[in-house]
Structure formats: structure tokens, C-alpha cells
Amino acid sequence: MRRYVDFWVIGEERERAVELLRALARLGYSDAVMELKGDLAWSFEELRDAAAEAGVRLHRKLVLKPNSRKELLQELRRSRGKFEVITVICENLEVALVAARDSRVDSLIIPPKSGFRIDKGVASTIRNCVELPFSWYLANRQSFLEAALRIIQILGRRVGVIVSSASSSALLLRGPIELASLPWVLGYPQEMALDTVSKIPSQIIERNLLKLSNRYVCRGVVKIGEEDEEEVPADIL
Amino acid sequence: MARRMKKRYLLIFSEPIHNPEKVAEAIRSSYRILFGELGLASSGLKLIRGYEDGVAILRCALDSLPRAILAAATVTEIDGSGAALRVVAVSGTIRGIMRKLPRLRSGYT
Prior knowledge:
Oligomer: heterodimer
Shape of chain B: flat
Number of domains of chain A: 1
Strand content of chain A: 15-25%
Radius of gyration of chain B: 13 Å
Structural class of chain B: alpha+beta
Largest sheet of chain B: 4 strands, antiparallel
CATH class of chain B: Alpha Beta
Strand content of chain B: 25-35%
Strand order of the largest sheet of chain B: 2-3-1-6
Mean pLDDT of chain B: 92
Distance between the termini of chain B: 46 Å
Number of domains of chain B: 1
CATH class of chain A: Alpha Beta
CATH topology of chain A: TIM Barrel
Order of helices and strands of chain A: EHEHEHEHEHEHHEHHHEE
């Protein structure tokens, strides 16, 4: 059975964040990746317990919006090992080219009016996943669809695509099948579209949890042998 | 001989509770904006059953299923107030949907 992941929800205030987590559980998600804003950043453990009570595994997300390559690298250096997921909003080509190849970055968001074109040259450098935030689609349908269509056509077969809610309000959250309907309509087959809200984000989370654990040595190498430790699937290494 | 058109039934919960007729109209309007009049005509999107607790069962052509789901997900407002439409189940028969309805209704509320 598929496990669904909402790869970006925004927690702004404790009560609303807990309400958001309950809504996610009701919608059928088993994992949620939350960007914590304001005071919430200090109460993550408390929120994680509330999420577990609701039946959702909670992970931390850092969303960066740098203006230059230097700024991006500084931010990444500063935040290394503190978040399960790091996403970069690419406002310009310089940032996009660095974020696309950096192994510390998990996903990129290419805004609808980013001022640069994704062509085959840019596409060939992208190794990280590309994220499509659904609330951006709800805010500005036409320009978002233009950008999403281009991403799916050029990058769709080459890199993983993830669809997330990107919302801080329960009313703007969408269920997994509703999020998957976006790449499905844009040309993905049904199973591949469902992977954008289950398999692809799950793999990123599992890989990063492993990286953050003390079992991780370096890329492709983990410590094994303890009785209580689970096996590590080869595809997340 | 003409082949029978395959259909799918969608079970939709509205949040907060709205009249099922209005829910169906909101989805049709959203579908029209996204895919045009011709798309809407070929989708065969139709309200089959509606309940007072905001539950609606809609029917559409199998080919139009992802579009109908996207149209439902795109709805953010009904009658000027904020709304979210949740597609909680899809089935090939109305019987299949009716069988799932009690379980989903109790799990959702």
C-alpha cells in the first residue's frame, strides 16, 4: 500500500499547526514535511508528538530563497544537519544551476515568472527533484500551469517531480489524489503521478533520515550489524 | 456497434458543508475554466446523488477522470465563502461508492 507524503506544509502558529496535522491525517497522509515559522521553530519536538498522536510522521523543512550562489552556499553550510529536507526557491539561473547539483539540496522550486528558461542544457545539469507547490497553482493558475507544463515536458522523464500543498491553512490542503491529478493532467501516467506524492518524497525523507543518523558514514556506506537496526534498502543509499 | 462509454463515480466531501448542487456547479464551473466548454461537454460530468452533510457523488467519463479531480481540487470558494472539495473515493460503479460511503463518512468526520 502506498504511503503518502505532503512535502511542504507551513506551520505558523501552534494551534493552527496541530489543526493542519489532523487535517493531513484525515486526508490520508502518513508523513508531512513542515516549514516552521516564528516561535514554532523552537517547539518542533512538541509538534512531532502532536503529529504522532494524529498518526502522521513529522519532518522539518528549510525553504531557502537566496539571491546569489554565494548566499545559497552560506545558508546551506549554516543549516547542514539541522533539517530533514532542504528546498531552494530559484529566483535566477545562477541559483538554479548550483541548487540543481548540490547534494545538500533535496528539491528545487522554479517560480512561474522566474526570468529564465529551462532548456535542455539546464535540464541536463539538474540532479535534484523539482517541486510543484499546489497553493501556487491556486494563487495564479495560468502562469503556474505554463511553468509546470514546461517542467513536466523537459524535466519530467529526467528528474523526479514532487507535488506538495505548500499551505498554512487546512482549507488549502489537498489530498494525495488531488495533488497527483496535476501531473496526471499534464501528461504523466497515473502511477507515475501518484509517485510524485508518495514514492519520490518518501525516498528523499528515508535517505535524509539515514544521513542524519549516526549509522551514516558517507555516500553509499552505512554501519550495519546492530540487532535493533533495520535493513537499509539499496535505492535510498 | 458503438461501444459503451466507460464512466467513473467520484465521492466528494465538501469542507465546510455546502449544498451538493452548489458543489457540483462549482466543479463544473472550474472544469469549464480549465478545459473549456468542449472539454466539459465531453466529460459528462454530472451530479448523481447529494446528501445534506455535504457529500456529493458525481459521474464523469473515464478519460476525464484526472481533469475532474483537478477541477474539484481547484475549487477554493463556494458562494463567496472559503471551501475545499475532497475527492475521497473513485469507483467504476455507483454500488462500489455506496459500499465505501459509511466507512469514509465516519472516518472523515
